[in-house]
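User: I want to check something. If I give you two sequences, will you return the structure for each one separately, not as a complex?

Assistant: Yes, each is folded on its own. Here is the first sequence with its structure:
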Amino acid sequence: MNSPKKLTDVDDRRFMKSALALARRGLGTVAPNPSVGCVIVTPEGRTIGRGWTQPGGRPHAETEALARAGQAAHGATAYVTLEPCSHTGQTPPCCDALIDAGIARVVVAIEDPDERVSGRGIARLKDAGIGVSLGVMSEEASILNLGFLLHRQEGRPLVTLKSATTLDGKIAAHNGESRWITGPEARRRAHLMRMTHDAIVVGIGTALVDDPELTCRLPGLESHSPVRVVIDSRLQLPLVSKLVRTACEIPTWVVVSEEVPKDRCQAYQELGVTVIRVSVDGDQYPDPQKVFQALAERGLTRVLVEGGSALAAVLLRAGLVDRVAWFRAASLIGGDGIPAIAAYGVDSLSEMCRFELLSVEMVGDDRLETYRVAD
């Protein structure tokens, strides 16, 4: 009689890769929860259950996968991109669900930094006699859920700076004309990026010049538009702007100085706008650390910064940019164009913000480069 097949390290990576792909489906829809993927596999290597965190953060990935696996989960291996939760919140602990289902082994990519879990889920599984393997594809899992990790560890969301420029880094001609530097494929990809973030952030300059909608306008995905955030210390956003006029339909937040009169804030709040008051630093710009702390306190874990050049400079100077998504069109404007990033006080090369390349791809005729901040 042939001995039963044993899952190998290669199998572990293969199935964890599938779990990570499932986890990506929840990005932008689960905050403040992490986006988790789970795959349940028989000892023979047959996948019998798949799950990912559902919109709003519940049900959890393990619960979804176990429901699909049913009784076949007994003796199987569960691949989970984040340590199963061990606390009772709005749902029972996932580690208990895995134990009750008779799972024999759990492969975990990374520990959960949430103080309510942080190793307790793994400990409970081991106490129940379940084999646990930790650290399979941990780097990939950390990259995917960096927003959740930063939210729990530093009290702020992941910040991705998105820009669409010419080859020489210009976002507009000297007169402000910017539509369109990149092609339609790049613009569709940018809308897809919006869908995978919890919020889009712009400065008041961009809001005044462009009067943007900041929505996801891909066919069939209109309901996936994230929170829209305008950093506007003096509350200059016109009440007739598209953002204010649609605030009752799509969540719209405006971050203002504590010095803005409350009665002026009230006018916006009556139209559905959430007004967030923070202190202002020396140059009359909202303190960026406090801005993103305030966004995290309201549950945001992933924000996409789309403009403009002054806001980009402020965030770079504060060391708050974690990733850069840079669309480059094969065109040149020259020195009189508007740069993607305003001056932010770099006096020597040692003061530059440095990034590591994650990926490069062609999107139509444009090039998309994705970076992460260098260690």
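And separately, the second sequence with its own structure:
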Amino acid sequence: MNEQRQALLFLCVANSARSQMAEGLARMLFGDRASIQSAGSEPSTVNPYAVEVMRELGVDLGAHRSKSVSTIDPSTVDTVITLCAEEVCPAFLGAATRLHWPVRDPASKDPTIGRDEMLARFRAARDEIRAKLVRFGRQRGLLDTTMDAATEGDLRDVRALVGAAGLPVDDLAGQFPEGFVVVRDAGAIVATAGLESHGGVGLLRSVAVATSHRARGLGHALVRERLEAAARRGLSSVYLLTTTAEAFFREVGFAVVPRSSAPEALQKSPEFAAICPSSAICMVADLQTLRPFGSKPVTQSKGDKTS
């Protein structure tokens, strides 16, 4: 085993959903800094819902096959991560470090659960695993990116990044840096998102990720963090306008609403009043009801530490 690379093995029972998604996500996030495997104690087939929700992030599980933990050479693994929640997790022989990340199984044989709900369950499990991997990667030195509050000196770079994504920048300085967070990689800003406040509701804007860093889950992480920031501020809901990313924002909890339904204070904001075209889709996330499957509720507390 190459001692320069960390060697990870993800385990669950069937090696059909959680461990497969963990393998795909880890490969996406960590690249060649780690060798990645997954297996199960009772391998079956890769769940098509897992394939579908991973494809949304640009990760193809189509060629993956479920495999038995008995086929894994213990000498090729230094960290084993089990993902079972309700079930008994597979045993793994060897001297590897063992971690347990219980994630509720999104799969179900209940015929009353429709396609949309199943996709929501798999997306929530996927995003929970991804959040755990990001924390793990930072602890292990597998990720070089950091997310922090924007500063006054970041305006030029944020403007360039947002503009390159085809998003409006004319009014960017209006509430900058307040409400903005940035992701840095080796000191360079590679992603950003902004949250404006207008009369007790929020406006999510300028969610942009550099081309070199897409398909790593940074957009989802930024939106989730800004929603949590909105809850900490005591905002009741967060709106946005989009012309191209409706599907992405649906994934993270937003729903389409009539543009005319937005509160008056928001209608007077530059984005609503002048900048975004009338064809832009209006969406909202209600922070009181945003409860993705398998995730903790967004809780409110005073103060916004990131802005």
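Because they were folded independently, the notes below concern the second chain alone. The longest helix spans residues 115-140. Confidence is low (pLDDT under 50) at residues 291-307.
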